[in-house]
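Dear support,

I submitted the protein below through the web form. The confirmation email said the job was done, but the results page showed an empty box. After a refresh the structure appeared. I'm attaching both so you can tell me whether what I see now is the final result or a partial one.
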Amino acid sequence: MPAAPECAYFYRDGRHCRRIPARTESFCRAHRPRQPDEEALNAEAIAYCRQLDNLPLADVLDSLSETIAAMSPIAEDARIPYAVRAAFSRSSVAITVALDLVGSQYAPQLTPDQLTELCDRMSALAK
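What the results page shows now:
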């Protein structure tokens, strides 16, 4: 009879956790990676928004482009349902096109309020 799998966690002193994880998990209940809570995510988003408010439009557009590129593994992850991956792909294409349009045609004419409104619309598209 094969031995039960053990938790893959190693303590700082090099010892190995010997608890048995759930059937499809690599770590026991105590050592599973935790999801960040909603309050922390909201606080991070607010801080990021304030940071972007102080940047010129070109830097905001660059930041948005980098963020979309950082999320691209979502489109390739087979564990994520196809509908979600397809929606992400469509939204990233739409945002990329919007970035190009804003960057090339409308950027010199936008007021800060219009820019904020545009960013809100683009973030709504990504959801």
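Response: this is the final, complete result; the empty box was a page-load delay. The mean pLDDT is 79.
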